[in-house]
Amino acid sequence: MTLTEDELRAVLRAEAAAHTPDRIAILNRVTGTAVRTEAARGRRPRIRIAGAAVAVAAVVGGGGFAQWALAGMGEERPAPPPPPTTTTSVAPAVTETAAPVKTRRPTRSKAPATPPASPLWSDGSVDVGGKRQASSVVTIKTGERLTALTVTIRLARTPELVSRGGSQQVPGASVTSDVTEEGGALVYRFTLSSGDTLEPGTYTFVARYTYAPGGRDARADTYAAAATSGNGTPLTVGGDFG
Length: 242
Prior knowledge:
9 strands; alpha+beta; five-stranded antiparallel beta sheet; 2 domains; 4 helices; 22% helix
């Protein structure tokens, strides 16, 4: 026989309330109760042990198996639910980044500062005009306007040295000159007149003289120039005739 759903539920609740479930004991009790109930009704016991076992298992195990047992007991046993899936989160691998390498820029040594070129330039030379006469020539170049200029040529005393005067090439300005004997030397001075100026350019100053036959050594001769630029800066140059 087959128990009705209400009868099976009543039996299960009674057994569950009585004591802690025991699969074998509950199965025996359920089976005996079903037989006695059928006998009292005058019917042939036809309870299926498998069905009772399933019912007991449903009480003990709970879940979907109990619902299947109570619903029909004759249908195909459903597959047990799959075990819960545990998802393990894996932290992304941390890649260590190398610290940036600091580079030092190469230092460059500064070249020593070159002093500004003087706006005043000079040169000395000897122009021989014969066996007994010559001229010592001083060339002055200026890159700035000059408000004052004095050129001095000093000729060391040698046999029969005699001055023949001086001359200059200074266009556009007035220059005075004189020759004196100082400390055993002939000194030629050329001076820019007061109030005159010299514009940037090249100017020459000449000391003429005669000497004894056989030539003259000019290595002891010297010259110097002192000037003042338009902004009041003093300028000097000098040299020799070697």
